[in-house]
Design brief:
By secondary structure, this protein is of the alpha/beta class. It is built from 7 helices and 9 strands, in the order H-E-E-E-E-H-H-E-E-H-E-H-E-H-E-H. A 5-stranded mixed beta barrel has the order 5-8-7-6-9. It is globular and about 55 Å long. It binds hypoxanthine. Hypoxanthine binds next to strand 5, strand 8 and strand 9.
Amino acid sequence: MEYTFEQYRQSADFIRGAIGSFTPEVALVLGSGLGFLGDEVENAVVVDYKDIPHFKASTAPGHKGRLVFGTLKGKRVAVMQGRMHHYEGYDYKDVSYGVRVMRLLGAEKLIVTNAAGCVREDWKAGDLMLITDHIKMFMESPLRGENLPQFGPRFPDASFLYTPALQELAKGAAAELGIPIREGVYMYFPGPQYETPAEVRMARLLGGDAVGMSTAPEVITAGHCGMDVLGFTLLTNMAAGILPQKLTEEEVLAAAEACKDKFSRLVLACLERM
Ligand code: HPA
């Protein structure tokens, strides 16, 4: 569905009523496995998606469906605990709605995380990847339809969606912590079925290093409204066709759980330095 600027404003005003003069610096959209970081926010004010005008609920397993405002690593944050996905039936305007609302509340930076399949045969499940760029060939843009110039231009540049300075910051933080980190391109697939082996081979040929079902819509939207973006992928599994076995949601969630300590330490170290 299409939203007017006024509707985004109404959502932001409702939240403003709960958080008062608090202005988030960094917005976080946390994917499978990292939602718990929302529980570590200090002096938290929690707003459920279902209470916010025009907001949609989030139904994916492991996603909570609430916004948490407060401080984390000394930064004023807005944490989306649970994102919306196109495969849940939401259109991209809904999927990226929260990003615009957090922008209206003052957030100028966005950290996004996700779980994804590893396309690179020389990497392994459990590796972390700094997202340097993405490929989103499937489905329409979240910016399709009438442009809302209050957020950004009709034809926004996408050369630096993943902010180079934040990538440098993340590499520095990873090195300091001794956490190995890959760098690569996230290729978006709409899901909810995992990719076929042929699709994974296609992704590899096209320059994709990871395949996943989220993130790109939110990042396009964030870039449009001028936010700096830092993105991380947890490679929970080798993508389809690489190993002689089926992919399961249990495997993905188990890997996310197993890696959440190193993943969260890295994300928090970046947040601290931002
Ligand atoms: N493909 C798409 N999305 C995913 C995967 C995958 O292999 N693993 C976790 N999320």
